[in-house]
Specification:
The complex is a heterodimer of chains A (289) and B (529). By secondary structure, chain A is mainly alpha-helical. Chain A has helices at residues 31-50, 69-93, 96-101, 103-120, 122-125, 149-158, 184-197, 204-217, 219-222, 248-256, 272-284; strands at residues 14-19, 22-25. The longest helix of chain A is centred in the N-terminal third of the chain and has 25 residues, at 69-93. In chain B, strands 6, 7, 8, 10 and 12 form a 5-stranded antiparallel sheet that branches. The chains are: A mainly alpha (289), B alpha+beta (529).
Chain lengths: 289, 529
Amino acid sequence: MPKNDIDKVTGIETTGHEWDGIRELNNPLPRWWLLTFYATILFSIGYIIYYPAIPLINSSTMGISGETNRAILKQEMAASRQAQQAQLVRIAAEELQSIKADQELNRFAIAGGASAFKVYCSQCHGSGAQGGAGYPNLNDDDWLWGGDLDSIYTSIKHGIRNDEDPDTRYSEMLAFGEDEILTADERNQVVEYVLKLSGREHESAMALEGESIFSDNCTACHGDKGTGDREQGAPNLVDAISLYGQSRDIMRAQINNPRHGVMPAWGGRLDDETLKQLTLYVHSLGGGE
Amino acid sequence: MNAIGAENSHSGSNVEAFDVEAVNSRENRSLYEARKAIHPKRAKGSFRTLKWWVMAVTLGIYYLTPWIRWDRGSGLPDQAVLLDMANRRFYFFMIDIWPHEFFYVAGMLVMAGIGLFLVTSTFGRAWCGYTCPQTVWVDLFLVVERFFEGERNARIKLDAQPWNGSKIAKRSAKHIVWVLIAIATGGAWIFYFADAPTLFVNLFTGNAPHVAYATVGVLTATTYIFGGLMREQVCTYMCPWPRIQAAMLDEHSLTVTYNDWRGEPRSRHAKRMRKEGKIVGDCVDCNACVAVCPMGIDIRDGQQMECITCALCIDACDGVMDKLGVERGLISYATLGEYNSNMAIAHASESTHASTVSLINPENVRGKSGQLSDKLIHTSWRSFIRPRTYLYMAIYVAIGLAMLAMLATRERLDVHVLPDRNPLFVVLSDGSVRNGYELKILNMKGEQREFEVTIHDLDGALIWLAAGSDEPSSRVRIHVEASKLKSSRLFVVVPKHQIPDTKAVFSLLVKALDDSESVTHDVQFEVPG
């Protein structure tokens, strides 16, 4: 380039640009700046070769490392599964009681159960296993089918009233009103009697009438005192917890035409490790026996 | 500048004059030029000696600290100073800092800040001149350079001579040693973050984590480039410190000062000039101060941003003054206030020699007998110890004592109780109400402890641990390992007839059985309705 336009004051060549009489000196760039600039160019070439960089229509160039966030996630997931393998093998092999006795393994199982619970169980039982009307609260100490480890395990594995599992837990209460086994008056008298058994407010006269109706129709399953029978899945009628609620209306409705909840049999859908972990988690919520 | 002939030497005084250019002085420096190499001559004197000591101590601290052992009992690292990132713990001899105690580190940073104000307002850029790692490592690298390539003149000659076997040998030896020092520097850094002996072995057997090698690599590169190749450019162009520090100086701060009031007019031919009846100052313009300057400046140009106040020019000049038989201190630590006051004396117009070119008249500062005038102010501790200094000292000491007091009385037990949010409460079959809590006990002591948890201010309440097999009672025991956090699930149950009408606040008392350290934590009890 010919050295044409030299600034008279500084003796330095100008770029030839001029704005309102202001001319730009063509000073060289500071060397450190230039070197840094070249270094970034070199770096970018290395980056493009090593990492996925240039977007294509459906994907991108993969670079020699092929290191994408998705691939890293895959690796990490595999690694964490690998890390859990030893415990999972033990959980599959050991009895529930011996898993519970091993503090470390129990903690692992409860954590695993908690996360499985969120995925498979929380839809009905709630994320805190607090349940709701018709869906048992798993935190309390009231169990329809038993609250020890083996009973919980069986309930989870085979489900409740599940058509597809021959070993499922099954119980059915007669529709005393709908099927016209008891009259409306009789049904109301039974309600008063159950209230009496529970130690709650009741109509004494009606309750007196209800006693014989109760012993004729209900004790086979619910027991003489209405305390229920876990073998048959018959609820305790006199404690502070009821699946559908404790008001007179709900009790009457339940005797008239009982509702029967259904729970899936998880045995066919989840592996045994997960079933055991779920069992230990539910057992740890505070009501385990 | 021409070579200096025999006529320039001061007969009888034997002062060597240097052919040296202050490459970074204002006139010589252009931002658009390549850096001109500086070949500092080795200085001799009290400040150089002090700097050797500072170098030995700071490098010693840096390289050796990670190897100091400190017994903390089993299960805890036995390294005296350790930043344990994985376990989020900072160990410093008998002190261990947990993440939630990080304010101690913040306090130390505040103290460092105040300390900087104190030192800078008092001693000027003492940090830059003596203890900055850049200064220390450049000094160390210069020692290596001198060892292989010789003193200043030899190095200049070597620079100029064409490449041959001897030059290649000297240069490569120098760079190899530099790189080795750089590796040792980068290597020492990582020992602060892991058990040093273990990491040392792993480092050489290839078992250390990648981040260790990467850190060593980066710090090796920065040490080699900054200390060996860039040197004074780091201070002048990269470092924000000179700009910040300059804002903290005032006219009572010590700086390295060329005392024009006795140096000017400078002359290389002092004797001849005096014979001719001309007035000359003490400066014989030997350039010794420029030759030793690692920053490539001329201190006689006055205060400059490039000056790191390493005081090597003081040593160089004092040596020359000794040879001349004149008082030391032509270049000295002085405050701007004193300098100005002395300059005023020198500038006074009662000059008998009107012909003098300089406005400074040395006869104003020297009496007939050659003694320095009594009116001159000489730097003493009174020059720079002043209310501002006392104030900084007081703040520094106050924060330090407050931190010490907090450290001495700090709790070694921390308790957190997280109530269950889902469900808030559970009604049990007998009508009683149960609440669940996550009870976290942090045992910050270096020994395992047994804690007893008791419940207060909640009638009829019983507690038990979810993991335990004990019946509900009024107390539970929890064992916590040394320096560990133990998280336990705690249940609190209140019988039906004692359930409070609205949610109630009760307290949990966590007490160590061995040493009675205790913490009370208020917790809420949720009830239905």
